[in-house]
Amino acid sequence: MRTRFAPSPTGPLHLGHAYSAILAHDMARAAGGAFLLRMENTDLERCTGEWEDLILEDLTWLGLSWEEDVLRQSGRIADYNARLETLAARGLIYPCSCTRGDIRAALAAPQEGVPHNVYPGTCRGRPMTDRQAGDALRLDLGKALDLLSDRPLTFVETGQGHAGRHRVDAEIARQMIGDVVLSRKGEDIVAYFLASAFDDADQAITHVIRGEDLFEFTPIQVILQHLFNLPTPVYHHHRLIRDGDGKRLAKRDDARAIRKFRAEGATPDDIRRMVDLG
Questions:
Q1: Strand, helix or coil for residue 120
Q2: Residue 189 CB-density burial (10 A; 0-12 exposed, 13-18 middle, 19+ buried)
Q3: Per-residue pLDDT tens for 106-146?
Q4: CA 14, CA 146: separation in Å to the nearest integer?
Q5: Distance in angstroms (rounded) separating the CA atoms of residues 141 and 62
Q6: Residue 277: its pLDDT value, please?
Q7: Among 193, 212, 141, which Cα is nearest to 170's?
Q8: Rounded distance between C-alpha atoms, residue 232 and residue 193, angstroms
Q9: CA distance 68 to 242
Q10: Contact, 188 vs 41, CB < 8 A?
Q11: Beta carbons within 10 angstroms of residue 133's beta carbon
Q12: Which residues, listed in sequence order, are joined to residue 211 by a DSSP beta bridge?
């Protein structure tokens, strides 16, 4: 078993991050496997070395350790771009010049409470030769699904809420996910969907442990894996840690930051007890 924890260094770790990291770490250790750490830091405007240092400090304080050097996505932009060129050569992506703010939002990992607006296809059909500075690149999901129509697109889920084998339903994917953004030219920002799918394969991750808010978007990663003949890992989507009002914790919720609990005298065992309680 090889698991990973992949935070974005854009703010402090909170209890939800701690739960995900501890779970991935402990599952790997229990199976005699390896736990890896990855920094999803392609958004250079928001990601900083200071936040990364604090994340490493918090994880070490929690008693977690990782077997290999930290992988940083910022050092892999050329690899992601090379794979995008492969998709372009197959006619599976197209340039999009729609609202900049919408495109930037679409590059991040989906979050509970943040609506995913299915792209209406405004720029679909534009050739790559028409690509302009600042254009995003979108996956033509319909073409991709047609190309993979003879393959069984499935994945295994072991999380309590969705345990079992799931089949990617092409029609539901078209209606609920649509033509997702994969990259934005000139900013070296690569979408979560694309980068994490390739990184999981390149790091030989066998089990992806992450929050249940990402479950519905697993099909797009399975589709990308099949387009590149990559293995599909086992997925384990865990419950989310919530505040007193039942809302998912966010990085802006500094009151539940690990650094704050540390400063108040909490121990790593205290953190484990809190996340066990949800």
A1: coil
A2: buried
A3: 555 565 544 567 888 889 989 999 998 888 999 999 999 99
A4: 41
A5: 41
A6: 72
A7: 141
A8: 14
A9: 31
A10: no
A11: 7
A12: 238
